Structures are given as C-alpha cells and as structure tokens.
Amino acid sequence: MPRSDHAPVILWFRKDLRLTDNAGLVCAAESGRPVIPVYILEPTESGNGPLGAAQAWWLHHSLEALDASLRHIGSRLILRRGPADAVLGALVGETDADRVFWNRRYDPNGIAVDVALKEELTLSGLTVRSFAGQLLHEPTRLKTGSGGPYRVYTPFWRALEASGEPPEPVPAPSRLEAPAQWPQSEALEDWGLRPTAPNWAAEFADVWTPGEAGAEAKLAAFIERGIVGYKSRRDFPALPHTSSLSPHLALGEISPASVWHATRGLGDRVEAEDVIHFRKELAWRDFSYHLLFHFPQLASKNWNERFDAFPWEDAPDLLKRWQRGQTGYPIVDAGMRQLWRHGVMHNRVRMIVASFLIKDLMIDWRLGERWFRDTLVDADPASNAASWQWVAGSGADAAPFFRIFNPISQGEKFDVNGEYIRRFVPELKDMPNSFIHKPFEAPLLVLKEAGVSLGRTYPLPIVDHGKARNVAMAAYQALPRPDET
DNA sequence: TTTTGAGTTGTTCGA
DNA sequence: GTCGAACAACTCAAA
C-alpha cells in the first residue's frame, strides 16, 4: 500500500472545542487515517483576535477538557504556539501529514489567516478541507431580495426561519486512529492562561464548568427548567431563566445547531413562544456575525458614520468607577461586580450598564466594548461589538437615541425585591426594597438602620441621572443630519 | 422604479 | 394609578 494512504490528517481545533457535531473531526475520523488533533495559540495580531483575560482562563480549562475527551477515544491534543502557518508547516514536516482539516471561523482576522493558509498549504501539495459549524448558518447564506446583506434583524430572522432548520448535529466519533508517533506538545501550564496573583478568577469555577460536558449539562438544565417561561422570565436577573450557554458557544464547546435541535419536541411542557424567543437569541448571534462579516470594522468604527461626530467625554476616573462597580447606582454596580466576580453578566443588566456608560457618562462605547472583551468569559467579537453599537445607537437596527435606560426604574422593574442587588452589592443587603435601587433617596434613619453610610460604605451617585439624560439627549440631537455631513 | 409599512429590549409627561 | 402619545427622522426590505 502506498505510504500516502496512511499519511496522517491534521485536525486543527479553533473555536470548536468539542467532539459532538464537529464536521471536520468526523471527516478526519472517517478518512481511516491517523489523526493529529492540534490547538494553536496564535499571536493576537493573527488568527483569533485578542484573547481577553477571562476567556483565557476559560480556554485553559476547555483545552484540558478537550484533551481528556480525546484520550477517551484513543487520541490526544497537541498544543503549539505561534503563527498558524509556521506551526502547521512544522507539524506537516514532523508528521508527514498530507491533509489539514478545520472548521471555519468568521471573524475578519480569522478569515484572513485561513484564506491565506488554505492557498499556501494547497500550493505545497496538501489537501485542505474546511467545514461549517460555528453558526446556525454561514453568514453569506441569507441575502435580501436584492442580493445584499441584512441590516435589520426582523427580516433577517424571518429569512432564517423560512430557510429551514440548521443541519442535524452529527455524533462524536467513537475512535480516532493514533499516529505511529505523537509529535511533541507544549505544556498547557506554560501558556500562563490563568491569572496568578491576584487570582481574580477564584470564583469562576463555582459558576462554570468549561468544556463540552459542562456545556451539555448547562443545556440539559436549561431545557429541563430554564426554558419554561423563558419569554418573560429571562429578563429578571435574579431568576435562573437564561441558558448560560454563551461562554460555551463562544469557544464552540457546543454547536448552535445542537442547541437549536435540543429545543425541538418539548411537547406541551414548554410553550411554543418560549422556544421561539430562545431561538431568536441564537439567531441574534448569527445576525451579529452576519454584520461583522459584511462590516469587518464593527468593533472599531461606528456602523452609522453619523456618530463619528459624537462628543464623547474623556473621563478615566468615571470609567474606572464604572468598571469597579462604584457608580452609586445599585443595579449598575451589581452588574459590573457580577462581571468581575463571575466573568458574566445577565443580559438585561448588560443593557443597563452599557446605557449608563454611554448615555449617563457619555463615554465612548468602544471603551465599554474593550472592558467587556477582557472580562467576559463569553467574549465574542461579533456579539460584543454589535451589542455595544446597538445600545449606542450607532449600530445596525439600533436603539433609537431617546431610549435611555433609567437605572432606578429598570432595577425596580426587573429586580423587584432587590435580590440580584443583595447578591452582588452586599453592603446594601439590609436596605428595604423601597430604597434598595435608590439609596441616595433614603431618609437618614433608613440608611442608619441598614448600616449604610453613603459616601463611605456605599458611593454617592457619580452623576445625576436626570441631568445626564438631558445632556445626552441634547448631544444626540445635535448630531449632524445625514445630508449635512 | 416607486411606494409602503415597519423597525428587540424605554421613559416621561399629561390627561 | 393607568394609559396613550410624544420623543425624530431614517432607512431598510419587499411588494
């Protein structure tokens, strides 16, 4: 038998750290050849884009989990650092592999690297194959009637719904053939992905189990309990009715198609409306990638250029107070502290804190985007940028400028009993419900009984929301009209 | 080509 | 306390 029939396949893992519903992996397994799974830690300027500190923690544990899963099917994960072309070139030389498989990624950096790499490897005689699986549908699949990309979510959703279900997930292979000799792997510990001193990620492990099994457990729990009443209850940050799948999806520990199909056939137990609203959230993720694909500067430039003239404040002290959860507005502080402690923030609270940074503090949304990217375990280049622009009003299909969240009424509406506040802002835990969202309006006696001393145990508000709102409205109204630019 | 209906997530004010 | 209107105009998507 000619030697090339047994030349190994290199399977390059990227944002698809899973065995189930992994098209590239299945194809490699079915080739009947030895498979060499590899993960490459690429420099930030190439490949995956900047890796935030919180997500780096996650990645460490996810790679550990992936290696363990691979060992169960007779394989293992090879770890290498460096630019993808150099690393793959070296691996090909060391292993005599003649084909490289991967699943496609859709962020602009990743696309650029992959396109160049595919050409380079193909020219040097290798077979390169890439597969879909990071999104429900690839970002070029849905087009408007005139052939362009969608800019409004609702028509995008209708088109997605009308275009049929995403492909059925494919099962994990039961066995991978090992190469005669494993190439060298770097040690995960040497990558320094976890924080050392101070260990700000100490509580992450209480909340999260990175890896495919953790993702499946979260999904099962959500299908069992969370999805019931999802449409209305998902807005309440103290309730466990969001799926918490975003960090798992961000690194591809579970595929969006698997999640989509898991919400089928739930019968009478779950209202159809709840399923639809959950799927619409999955579709938002696709819509964000659709936007990013067609507007690669989504994270750095206003999608709507009119906003280039917005008079952002240069206020590093206020930015720091926001980052630390010391604004004096309890719902904002609770959200920012949840983010710091758990690497995540409830979706509704994200809107509130984002609105506060942009509209109350008039700080550039890009600074908020950057902070989220560094602190969220679910940091995603498309969702993060698209959502910040949505709140700023500069994005596609964005919030109108007059939609300015009131941090007091949002708190009163969605955290009625202050449960979420008490969890993350313990210095307010004894405040009565009537003032927990606005301690600055509480009579002295109430404060005293709750053990709160404003400006000492809990900050005074750093801005007056009412005044700040008027200033922001005026700034938005003063933006040049499109025909004046 | 032109027209038309519609557009994630809110707040405030006045009747 | 409740309710509807105003808060702006713009641009998209499809007929």
Characterization of this structure:
- The chain is mainly alpha-helical and 485 residues long.
- It contains 20 helices and 5 strands.
- It has a 5-stranded parallel beta sheet with strand order 3-2-1-4-5, sandwiched between helices.
- Strand 2, helix 2 and strand 3 form a beta-alpha-beta unit.
- Helix 13 crosses helix 14 (347-360) and helix 15 (365-375) runs antiparallel to helix 16.
- The longest helix is centred in the middle third of the chain and has 23 residues, at 272-294.
- The radius of gyration is 24 Å and the shape is globular.
- The structure holds a DNA duplex (15 and 15 nucleotides).
Strand order of the largest sheet: 3-2-1-4-5
The geometry reads as: globular
Along the chain, the helix and strand elements come as EHEHEHEHEHHHHHHHHHHHHHHHH
Provide the β-strand percentage band. Answer: 5-15%
Features of the shown structure:
DNA-binding, mainly alpha, 5% strand, 485 residues
What does this entry show, briefly?
The protein has helices spanning 23-30, 53-72, 84-95, 108-123, 153-162, 204-207, 212-226, 230-233, 246-250, 256-262, 272-294, 316-324, 330-342, 347-360, 365-375, 381-392, 407-414, 419-424, 444-449, 465-477, and strands spanning 9-13, 35-41, 78-81, 99-103, 127-131. With 485 residues, it is mainly α.
List the helices and strands and how they pair.
Elements: E1 9-13, H1 23-30, E2 35-41, H2 53-72, E3 78-81, H3 84-95, E4 99-103, H4 108-123, E5 127-131, H5 153-162, H6 204-207, H7 212-226, H8 230-233, H9 246-250, H10 256-262, H11 272-294, H12 316-324, H13 330-342, H14 347-360, H15 365-375, H16 381-392, H17 407-414, H18 419-424, H19 444-449, H20 465-477
Helix pairs in contact: 5-11, 11-16, 13-14, 15-16
This protein binds a DNA duplex (15 and 15 nucleotides) through residues 144-146, 148, 150-155, 235, 280, 284, 347-348, 351, 355, 390, 397, 399-406, 409-410, 469, 473, 477, 481-482.
